[in-house]
């Protein structure tokens, strides 16, 4: 069963309003479209860094939409990261949507999961 899990790990209140809107949008992603793989989204801040960071982790390697770094191989799968310095929550949600629904990467091009 494919599922979408989302969480926030904010250390300040700087992004609280935007993240609330984005989290609501993420919860609606699967109402009209089925996931191809399990997916975990984490929106977070780092102390001393004003940017909002977003990690999207899939069980299987996926392509990287423009603006996303990765994939990196982690114990939970294959992670892509993107940072936002400001922006409309709807635009941030669109970028996350593109990563959540990114197509699987072809086996020959996929990084190996060795952990």
How would you describe this protein?
The chain has 115 residues and is of the alpha+beta class. It has a single domain (4-100), classed as 2-Layer Sandwich (Double Stranded RNA Binding Domain). It has helices at 16-28, 89-100; strands at 4-9, 39-46, 49-58, 69-74, 77-84. It has a 5-stranded mixed beta sheet, with helices on one face. Helix 1 crosses helix 2 (89-100). The mean pLDDT is 90.
Tag the structure with descriptive keywords.
Double Stranded RNA Binding Domain; 5-stranded mixed sheet; 5 strands
In short:
By secondary structure, the protein is α+β, with helices and mostly antiparallel strands.
Q: How much is the radius of gyration in Å? A: 14 Å
CATH architecture: 2-Layer Sandwich
Question: What's the structural domain tally?
Answer: 1
CATH topology: Double Stranded RNA Binding Domain
Q: Percent helix among the residues? A: 10-25%
Outline the biggest β-sheet. 5 strands, mixed
Helix-strand string: EHEEEEH
Low-confidence stretches: none
Question: What is the number of helices?
Answer: 2
Average pLDDT confidence is 90
Estimate the strand proportion.
Answer: 25-35%
Distance between the termini: 23 Å
Number of strands: 5
From the helix content, strand content and strand pairing, which structural class follows? alpha+beta
The coarse silhouette is globular
With strands numbered from the N-terminus, the spatial order across the biggest sheet is 1-2-3-5-4
CATH class: Alpha Beta
